[in-house]
Amino acid sequence: MTPREQRIFGFAVFAAFAVIVLVLPQFISDFRARDYAYVGIYLIALLGLNILTGYTGQISLGHGAFMAIGGYTTAILMAGNEQFGGPIPSGMQDIWTLPIAGLVAGLFGLAFGLPALRLSGLYLALATFAIAVAMPSTVKRFEEHTGGGQGIQLFGLPELTGSNAVAPADPNAPATFEVLGLTFTQNDWMYYLAWSIALAAFAGAWLILRGRTGRAFRAVRDSETAAVSSGVSLARYKTLAFGISAAYAGVAGGLFAIASAFVNPDTFPIALSIFLLVGIVVGGLGGLSGLVVGAIFVAFLPLWAQGQDLGSVLPDSVIQGDTVSIPILGDFLFKGTSAPGGPAIVYGIVLILLMFVLPNGVGGLFRRVGQAITNRRYSRSK
Amino acid sequence: MLAAAFTDFMQQVVSGLASGGIYALLALALVIIHRSTGVINFAQGEMATLSAYIAWALIAHHSWGYWPAFAATLVISFVGGIGIHTAVIRPVERGSVLRIVIVTIGLLVAINGFVVWQWSGEPQQLQSPFGTDVYDVGGVVVAAHDIGTITVALGIVLLLGALFRFTKVGLALRAAAVNPEEARLVGVRVSWMLGLGWGLAALLGAVAGMLTAPTVGLDPNMMAAVLIYAFAAAILGGIDSPIGAVVGGLLIGVLLNMLSFLSQYGMFDWFTEELRLPMALLIILAVLLVRPHGILGRPEVKRV
Q: Which residues of B touch A271 (CB under 8 A)?
């Protein structure tokens, strides 16, 4: 495909995807709509992380912390100043807090980007990992603004769109409310809010990455020495990448807070940061379209892993009746994966296996297939 | 008043050294892996926890004595470390940093899950090899376990130093880490050496785990915070220096306790216990920015 054809093809796929996103709630249950809303939220965070890690080559294991900054910004703004000292006394309508959440997180990202300039590879991974681990206790320290371990409760606040929803006559049907003359259930509203922002974020990321800035990012990733020699300022573009990336995470965090109507330190655990990294790796580093798969993976793999029975994974000879006989571990009881910890085992193993079989993620698979098609066309025309 | 403050001060120093000893042990394990393979192992803490659980299970479920269980755990951990290297690290070793990081994170998640799944999340009690004696030195309480921990940390540094410096295996380990290609040319089995590095680190982790559990309680997540302090210790001391890891560990233990001590007396009153972990993060950042090779490490020289 020529670049022109490629672009037209890209637009067509994007448009088709947007249509699918638009009509999907018609075909899934109201309950599922919420799960897919989280897919949209993860997509936003993954786009941001991929700008930093996939395109600029800076590993971050701490993006959950930037999401936390966004989430707490949204929550504090919505809750008003009565309890948590938000700047607007009566509280802010949920969706208007999102740009601010992005901005605040973005500023933190820029601020962290400066020291991060001196770090590369493993050390950056380590420092960002430490951020993610240190975040919950920092939040607890500033209890007067963050509610400490209790967190901030948003459920039922009038600032939360849809909290004044009217229950319909049929008790089984979900409560609905109106925005801009359209009727939504709480879950559908969340779905459309998350996905309209996600699609805009996708387009935004594409615009940032296709031009001069994106080229500079990739140059930094591929060879810092070569980038500097061609006049790309490392300091400028690395901090910029951190800022943009953190801003994306902040918006995602804000949406996360709105969707769960609640934030506390456990809303943004270290596992979240890990999931995000996994998401971009599954989706493919340095690509955008694969991230949709990455986001689905992040949202659904934990649920899927929960449903797995390890009994079917371990060979029969290992399991005798109800016990596993691994020689050294002796006669410990086999508990099945419904027991806590099981999903984590599956998740961890899947993660490692993915690194073996799909090192470039699903996006890499897409590209390989695309390349194969291009090659065939090229050789036919010869 | 002043005397009381001094006793208080000494008490904080002593207990700081005690927790520092634990950080030092895990930091040593991190240093060994980094030194012999160039990898930072995010699963180091979980590997240590798993080892401690194995020791506990042998004692509690199979009524082994402490020392046989201790020795068995060391052997299992050593073999397990080599196994982990062969099974999951080697395939990605030559790939990008990101792949290695993700594989060790996958290990972290899986091992943590395994521990919870196998032994439930309930806290357990693992005994200390040094007993529960407590000495009173002029009003300052010193536990035998803490003295033991610090002694073990220092002893391991000497052993490691001797291993790296005076033995053929140590030389081969260093050669394999510094320049794998040329080491291979002169007949060093590089992949064996890298595996050996992982085995050693797992063994050290096992010691760290078994000495951490008696003080903080055996719990699937007991190493999560310790890992960050150990990172901070390794970075502070110099990520390639075993002595640095111990010095860094003890320094961080004492430093954090000093902050709590001073905050009790009105200085640094913004400091609360919740800020211990964030402080470790600040130390990591500050050292990496000001002196990336740490107190005792050698500066890394990059050819461009």
A: 109
Q: Is B90 exposed, middle or buried (0-12, 13-18, 19+ CB in 10 A)?
A: middle
CA distance B95 to chain A (A): 9
Local mean pLDDT, 10-residue blocks, chain A (382 residues): 78 83 76 83 93 87 90 85 67 82 92 78 81 82 74 73 67 69 76 90 90 88 84 86 93 90 81 84 80 85 57 36 31 40 77 79 70 68 48
Q: Is B287 left (phi over 0), alpha (psi -120 to 50) or beta?
A: alpha
Question: What percentage of chain A's residues is helix, strand, coil (to nearest 5)?
Answer: 70, 5, 25
Single-letter code of the amino acid located at A34:
R
pTM for the whole thing?
0.81
Reported ipTM: the value is 0.81
Q: Residue B33: its chain A contacts at CB < 8 A?
A: none
Backbone conformation region of residue B220, classed left if phi is above 0, alpha if psi is from -120 to 50, else beta = alpha
Report residue B28: phi and psi, to 5°.
Answer: -60, -45
DSSP letter assigned to residue A267: G
Question: What pLDDT shows up at residue A337?
Answer: 39
Beta carbons of B271 and B220 less than 8 angstroms apart: no
Query: Are the beta carbons of A125 and B97 separated by less than 8 Å?
Result: yes
Q: Which of A50, A54, A40 is nearest to A245 (CA)?
A: A50
Half-sphere exposure of B23 (CA within 13 A, CB side): 33
Mind listing the pLDDT tens digit for each residue in A52-88?
988 888 888 889 899 999 999 988 888 776 666 666 6
User: Is residue B75 within 8 angstroms of chain A, CB to CB?
Assistant: no
- Measured between CA atoms, how close is B5 to chain A, in angstroms? 26
Q: How much is the pLDDT for A323?
A: 34
Q: Which of A50, A117, A124, A133 should be substituted to probe chain B, the one whose Cβ sees the most B Cβ atoms within 10 Å? A: A133
Cβ distance of B118 and A329 shorter than 8 Å = yes
Quickly count: other Cβ atoms within 10 Å of residue B42's Cβ.
26
Provide the shortest C-alpha distance from residue A63 to chain B (in Å).
15
CB B14 within 8 A of CB B135: no
